[in-house]
Specification:
Elements: E1 5-9, H1 13-24, E2 28-32, E3 44-47, E4 50-53, H2 64-75, E5 80-90, E6 93-105, H3 111-118, E7 122-124, E8 132-133, E9 141-142, E10 145-146, E11 149-153, H4 156-162, H5 168-173, E12 178-187, E13 198-202, E14 207-212, H6 213-217, E15 223-228, H7 230-235, H8 244-255, E16 263-274, E17 283-284, E18 289-292, H9 301-318
Parallel strand pairs: 1-2, 1-11, 2-7, 5-13, 11-18
Antiparallel strand pairs: 3-4, 5-6, 8-9, 9-10, 12-15, 12-16, 13-14, 14-15, 17-18
Amino acid sequence: MSPPRVTVVGAGIAGVTCAAVLAGRGVAVTVLDRARGAGGRLATHRHAGRPADIGAAYFTVSGADFAGQVRRWQAAGLAREWTDTLGVFSGVDRAPDSRGPMRWAAPGGLRGLVADAAAELTVRTGHPVRSVRPGPGGRPLVDGEPCDAVVLAMPDPQAARLLDPATPAGAAVTGRAWNPVLALTLGHPRHAWAPLRAAFVNDHPELSLVADDGDRRGDGAPVLVAHSTGDLARRFDADPAAAAGPMTAAVHRLLGIDSDPEWTHVHRWRFAAPAGSRDEPFHLGTDGIALAGDGWGRSRVETAWLSGDRLGRELAGRLGH
């Protein structure tokens, strides 16, 4: 008898984690993503071959299950402890540093964590999906093609575009607000700022975070990554590249930099993080349509990983594996 077939739409950390669990249980899984490569919001931008993290700035660990995975990434050289202390700016003024949990970073970029999970999977990138609908016998249809189950591992507004709002999955994602962010990467000829791992930027009209990517990556490159406020991202939604000038000026004022960057890059995240949280780690309907990602819990890398891992285990059991 042939194994059950599951389609996972979304090749971020939640999607590939879920797919890897299912594949490990003997389920035939295909991962589809409209982007050119896997990664989702653990994305990197490459300049002259060097990656810079332009999605999540770092990740933290709170639970035993995720801690076990992080130890495996650490042993493979994919992740490293970075810092438990971040700077804080209140407007343009430096405030006392903030101590917290250990922040983890990835020498090769956080996208490498997704690539590791996807290494043994069938992943088809550049493959947009247009609709997901319930089908006969509890077998959903992905662009009209039946499968035994489908997982949508993506922000709610993107999932809502594919679903009928009258279905349980469609109702679960319809109308949920998500906040946008622009990520600006700046490459400088040299370090022209005081030592700073990263800093939260509060009460600022344009910036919400700035990170030294060379410190984060461990190679010392003079590269900064800054995240915008939601208001700025909305203002430049139609032309994200036009935000490079005002964001660069804001970063330079904040850090006291008086030299121009050699290059800049802006990436738009229309759905960077959910405006609210959920208690459930995933959705799995009787119609075979499931939802996972960092929108199911607090918006963190660990949340996305746990959502995919737990959904994969639950779905495999339902399919008899």
